[in-house]
Amino acid sequence: MAVINPYQAYRQNQVQTLSQEKLVLMLYDGALRFCRQGLVAMEQNDYAAVSNNLGRAEDILSELMATLNRDVGDIAENLYKLYDFMYRHLVQANVKKSGKMINEVIELLQQLRDTWEEAIKIYQAHDYRTTAGVNWQG
């Protein structure tokens, strides 16, 4: 019988009960954190840590691409292309040891994250149960 770390069990439960909106926000935050850690490691010439952190950010971008519903239209397709661009840019940043390229991805991720957070706030503030004075609840 495996012993479960209480903190790990708590974190796993926390992630499993998040809304999809907040889960995407959490993925953006994680990708940003790993990119920034990779940048710091690059400044310290710790290339193993650079590869590890950028690889983790790439994994998050891969997850975002894999779970994106591209059938909903142009916005989703363009978002997929942006994720793919960032993924490839991080791979090249790692190969070329380019902090500039990492910063470019950080800037794009930060803009997406901030836009997503704002969209969540707007969604949560809007009462979708009533529209144009019509109460759909009865």
UniProtKB/TrEMBL annotation:
SUPFAM superfamilies: Flagellar export chaperone FliS
Gene Ontology terms: biological process: bacterial-type flagellum assembly; bacterial-type flagellum-dependent cell motility
Entry coiled-coil feature ranges: none
InterPro entries: FliS, FliS_sf
Entry superkingdom: Bacteria
Keywords on record: Bacterial flagellum biogenesis, Cell projection, Chaperone, Cilium, Cytoplasm, Flagellum
Similarity comment: Belongs to the FliS family.
Name of protein: Flagellar secretion chaperone FliS
Originating species: Neomoorella thermoacetica (Clostridium thermoaceticum)
Upper taxonomic lineage: Bacteria, Bacillati, Bacillota, Clostridia, Neomoorellales
Gene assigned in the entry: fliS
